[in-house]
Structure formats: C-alpha cells, structure tokens
Amino acid sequence: MTTRANDLTVVNVPMQKIQVGQVWKKDDSGETFLITKVYNEALTSYAVLRKTGSEDQPPLRVKISRAGASPDLPGFTFTQKSDDF
Questions:
Q1: Which of 34, 46, 60, 85 shows the smallest number of beta carbons within 10 Å?
Q2: What is the value of pTM for the model shown?
Q3: Measuring CA to CA, how many Å separate 38 from each of 19, 23, 30?
Q4: Which residue has the higher pLDDT, 79 or 38?
C-alpha cells in the first residue's frame, strides 16, 4: 500500500471537558447558550448556561452526564461538533 503526501486523515476526537466560555446549542430550539459556571455538588457535576444575547433571562442549570470517556450536556450540542458558530 502506497501513501501519498497529500492524503489527509480526519480524526474525531472526543471533548475532554466542559469549560466556562464554551458555547452550546439547544437541540430543540437551536438557541445558543454560554457556559458561565461549572461546579460539583456531591458526586454530580453541573453547568450553568446563559442564553447568548439575553442577559435578563434566568440561567439554566444542567446536569453534566458522562457517556463513556467524554462529558455531555443532555439536550445540547457543543458548537464545534455541529460546525455552527
């Protein structure tokens, strides 16, 4: 098998952690939310999200789930995964 120098391999790397400043899109409405805080309570981790452009609305508190090795926010998609910025 011959490999050419111009061949490109794309690898989908799972996200390592959920961090303040990341932008997530709500799956059902398509609205974007900014993570403003991540904290632990007992054995559970939570993320506090605020809708972008709507600072007057109350923030959402979402339980972080672990599906395998990577964390996830149920009902939300990380914007870099969906290519929507």
A1: 85
A2: 0.72
A3: 7, 13, 22
A4: 38
> Would residue 54 count as lying in a domain?
yes
d(CA 74, CA 61): 11
Helix (H, G, I), strand (E, B) or coil at 16: coil
The 10s digit of each residue's pLDDT in 56-78 is 899 999 999 987 778 999 999 99
Q: Domain containing 31: what range? A: 23-82
- Does residue 30 surpass a pLDDT of 80? yes
Residue 72's DSSP bridge partners are 65
**Among all chains, which residue has been given the structure tokens 């009902």?**
75
* Planar angle of CA 44, 36, 30, nearest 5 degrees: 95
Residue 47's pLDDT is: 97
Nearest Cα neighbor of 49 from 78, 23, 13 is: 23
Of 24, 28, 66, nearest in space to 48 by CA: 24
Question: Could you tell me if residue 13 is inside a domain?
Answer: no
